[in-house]
Amino acid sequence: MWPELPQVYLQDSFRSRFIRMSLPAPPRLVDLAGQSLLKDQALAIAALEVLPMELFPPLFTAAFAGRCSETLKAMVQAWPFACLPLGALMKEQQPHQEIFQAALDGLDVLLAQEPRPRRWKLQVLDLRKNAHQDFWAVWSGTRASIYSLLEPEVAQPVKKRRKVDSCRPGPKQTLAPVEVLIDLCLEEGTPDESLAYLIRKVKQGKGLLHLCCKKLKIFAMPMQNIKKILKMVQLDSIQDLEVNCTWKLSTLGKFAPHLGQMGNLRRLLLSHIHMSAHSTPTKEEQCVSQFTSQFLRLHYLEELYLDSISFLKDRLDQVLSCLKTPLETLSITNCLLSESDLTHLSQHLNVSQLKDLGLSGVNLTCMSAGPLQVLIERASATLQDLDLDECGIMDSQFSAILPALSHCSQLMTFSFCGNPISIAVLEDLLHHTVGLSKLSHVLYPAPLESYEDVRGTLHLGRLAHLHARLKQMLQELGRPSMVWFSANPCPHCGDRTFYDPEPILCPCYMPV
């Protein structure tokens, strides 16, 4: 037996450990040295000439936090790595405008130097706030983790410059541009001072500063303002474009030439394009052709989202025929389509490798099930997510597509809320899909039998009984882990009732 320790000793021991845990960690020597160096601006700037590269990030972070504008400006010019991930630091510390401008001014001075300094390594100024998240944090770790972030040729201690013979000039350096990476969101409202300053620097850079943007979002903004900004952007750098504007078709036609220059575009989302009541059919056709012809230049497009596009009816084939490569994602939502549109879609080469197909809000009630069945069958080898919400699909149509659904071996999620389906068809669906090993989530509508009246009032007791019946069938068929949800819009407030696995009711069904 161990001897019993006195109660006072145990209390003192616990108290001392608690105090040690609650005290903040002491500052590192490198941080203290950096703070001391920054107190003398002239000394700090002069020290950059011989400062080891591993000390740059902590000193830069301290200068950034302390708003040491001139030192920061000099550090940008002397930055010893190929990339300066300024955006990640801006996300953490929310800098003042003067600090952001100081960084750009330092880049401006650097670009003006000819010949360029031998120590110059900077190729990219990354202003994206969600990129290189771990760059600044890793400097508190080991040297091995530090060097893992660097290019092999860069990850070497900086040596003192050697004298060169000034009488023997070397070959003239080619002035390669420096890239500034940014995610742009163009919308009306308070002017973005940082963006305005950046655009001004790009204009003054005379081609030595390239503004590159991987993600571009456009909201409500006058077209002339959009054009002015896009004129400064390397459009072939854009990979993800979202246009969330209420544009007329003629406005889309004016934007189309810019879209055609985005040759590396991977993802395109276009929403709320409407036709003017005063536009002639000839003018409409001209604008549609101007837009769809740009797809011929988008050789890498993988994801296409079209929401509330008024000109698609009887023209979907015109859009698809201009696509150069098979799509991985096709989402056509809240659009009017004809049966011929759906037929063309099912026969098109670009749908054979779809992973994600969405037709939510496309009314299919009066169409035959054949085109949809062919479409699902053709994508069955690759399809992972299928969304047929609010399509008005009836029992007979749904029964027709069940064999095709049973062949979707990669299917993981299937949603078909808002369709008038009976419990018999739901049970049939369960039997057809229970063999799909990857299918884990099914979002289904309340069966017709669970409604009290034609106004859409749910009988919660019936719905609970039907839901329990489906769960029991899954258990008996050996798929208890397959999650089936029920989601139904309330006729009063529009909120939905979910079962996950118990009912989550909208306020209209809550007891007073």
Automatic annotation (TrEMBL):
Recorded superkingdom = Eukaryota
**Which InterPro entries does the entry mention?**
LRR_dom_sf, LRRC14/PRAME, PRAME
Q: Which UniProt keywords apply?
A: Leucine-rich repeat, Repeat
Against SUPFAM superfamilies, the record matches this protein to: RNI-like
GO terms for biological process, alphabetical: negative regulation of apoptotic process; negative regulation of cell differentiation; negative regulation of DNA-templated transcription; positive regulation of cell population proliferation
GO cellular component annotations of the record: cytoplasm
Family, as annotated = Belongs to the PRAME family.
Q: What is this protein called?
A: Melanoma antigen preferentially expressed in tumors isoform X1
Annotated source species: Acinonyx jubatus
Organism classification: Eukaryota, Metazoa, Chordata, Craniata, Vertebrata
